[in-house]
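Researcher: Please translate sequence to structure tokens.
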Amino acid sequence: MRALLAPWRFAVDAALPPRCPGCGAVSGADHLFCAACWGSLRWLTPPWCASCFHPLADSEVLCARCTEHPPGHDGVRAAVGYDAIARAMVLRLKHGGHIAYAETIAAHLARLVPDKAELLVPVPLHRWRLWRRGFNQAALIADGVGRRRGVPVARGVLRRVRATPMLRGLGRRARARAVAEAFALAPASVQRLAGRHVLLVDDVYTSGATAEACAGLLRAAGAARVEILCWARVLDGAQND
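Model: Translation complete:
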């Protein structure tokens, strides 16, 4: 069968060659960045804050933010810093309908999943936004990560019970007010969360307001550890949108 399909695959590849997710240039394989885009992305690696994993010069200390306000989660596992390329990919996924970017992101997030992770929980969308968009990008990313790492995805654990305004351009306090009481635990979710090491999956970690709200509910339901798993993290001085 593969031999019979080979000519067709060659024709498809010639007509629709793989493209770099960053700039759209022809690349060697699906989901593969070109050398220029790969080099321009800020891949996040240690050393980082011992609490939230924000890049630091020393992994044994806390960042200033965690020293003043300890986070309500157990760290943020982000693949890249939020820059022009990372931002463009997120916007194409969320607002352009290019759902293949979810697989590109999942491929890079799979390597960040700790061995002890037991459950992937995507940040939910409100039903009206889900209806308009047609998909939840966080759930698509979680599905891709789950397939690669063999970790189950629990889509129904969290619900967004109150529609929130677009958070783009809002400051930290305004974001926290906007998501206050916007999320709730689904019935019987305690049984799935009790004692579990949970990864809360989202596309971008900005101020932490959404992550804090969701992580608080997951912890209240008995999750032993809640870490954030996301494609990009807004770092100091980055565009906050």
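Researcher: Any highlights?
Model: The chain has a mean pLDDT of 86.
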